Amino acid sequence: MSIAVAVPLDDVASARIAAVWERLARRGISDSMPRLGYRPHVTLAVFDALDEAAAGTALAAIAATQQPWSSALAGLGAFEAPRSVLWARPAVDASLASLQAKVVASLASPCHPHYRPDAWVPHCTLADGLSSVSLAHARELVADADVAGSVRYASLELVRFPPVDVRARWSFAC
After folding, report:
1. The predicted structure's pLDDT at residue 156
2. What is the domain partition of the chain in residue ranges?
3. I want to staple 160 with a disulfide (CB 3.0 to 4.6 A). Which of 97, 112, 134, 165 is the partner?
4. DSSP 57
5. What's residue 143's pLDDT?
6. Whole-prediction pTM value?
7. 114 in Cβ contact with 121 (< 8 Å)
8. What pLDDT sits at residue 125?
9. Which residues are CB-neighbours of 31 under 8 A, at least 6 positions away?
10. What is the mean pLDDT of each run of 10 residues along the chain (174 residues)?
């Protein structure tokens, strides 16, 4: 079981992404995200092990000083591999990059290499485990989908998975 720190998308942006998830599922391309049972989000870090009490203290302190902010989802991207991932691309702004770096620096455990600040690619997963053929079909299907648009980030969550278990949530300072 792993543990992640994520920033959930606001309700309007989540609805746009969930509609894409459902579209991909209805076409038989991938139902990986609806099956996950967790709202659309951007993962800031993933850990194999983490002291949840210490992490909670650190994340509460970060959230207490973080102002909510608005940004955008700005199109599609993919991690191409034998089991590819199609994702919505968040605009990388100073707030998102700074928050991710603070989270990784404040937690005492090493995160997965892809989530180190120098390697992290912010993304909101639309489908995973895709073959190259399925990835091409998914791109065609969602090319005209309403993925791009504004997003508001207002909280952090500590999440164990699989299965998804939201362990704690902190709202950003208002």
Report:
1. 98
2. 2-171
3. 165
4. H
5. 81
6. 0.95
7. yes
8. 98
9. 21, 24, 25
10. 97 97 97 97 97 97 98 94 96 94 96 96 97 96 85 98 96 89
CATH class label, 2-171: alpha beta
Q: Which pLDDT does position 14 carry in this prediction?
A: 98
Residue 33 identity (one-letter amino acid): M
Structure tokens at 29: 């391309």
Q: Residue 33: which residues within 8 A CB-CB, separation 6 or more?
A: 21, 24, 40, 125, 126, 127, 128
Tokens representing residue 135 in the block: 């990835």
Q: In sequence order, which residues have a C-beta less than 8 Å from that of residue 106 and are 6 or more positions away?
A: 58, 59, 61, 62
In what order do the strands lie in the sheet containing 124-130?
Answer: 124-130, 84-90, 69-79, 149-153
Nearest CA-CA partner of 99 in 5, 3, 2: 5
